[in-house]
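Q: Could you fold this chain for me?
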Amino acid sequence: MTTSAEDDDEIVARIPVVLGPVREGASSCLLQYPLRPRWRPYDFAQLSGARIRPKQHQIEMDLRIPAYDGEEGEPPPTCQLTSTVAAHKTAYAMGLLHVGAGATGTAGCADALDGLEASLHLAPLDAVAQMRPTFSQPLEGAADGADAAANPAGGGGREEGGGAEGGGGGGGGSEESVMPVFKRAETEKEEEARRSSHAYWLAQREAEPWRELRMHGGGDAATVEVRRQMFGLPS
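A: Sure. Below is the predicted structure, expressed as structure tokens.
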């Protein structure tokens, strides 16, 4: 099949593509919110706290929920978001179109770039995390309610134990013998199965302490500087 010169697309602009520099000790992560549509995003003006576990690629955010019928004096309820790492199906990069001074927003893209020093800067994306609400707070409240229902007297069990100890005080203390426990060494297959289990993964995740995060807006000076370093923009 042959095509004529009239069928070829017209070249309206040529833009050089620049790959951003590699930053030692820094990584970029894209946060997705799959349970929220684009027209109803989370209100990050209500953000009350954020934490990260860098090695586990885990992020938590606390968002205040406006309550109109809460009791006076009680703190507003919060919604906690936790991250889940999403697998990469291919290599992704973030792009920033840098246009020199003099561009106007009234003209089209091709007209705005015509005669200007424009360049497309790319930075590799290291991770993708999806933020979803966690149910740890409701579950903790339900567990506290179950404990209170199981022990309505509160402390009765301790008093019973104290009486038993007092009654046995006259007979003198008895020492219990401790027998040694021997376990055979794990095979490679058993060790691999243990390391791939959910309990092992959960223990490894909980072993890393949280680090507090300070969030910055898109127009803050710190954000602008990080963006400049990430994409290799001129200062």
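A (continued): DSSP finds six helices and nine strands in the chain.
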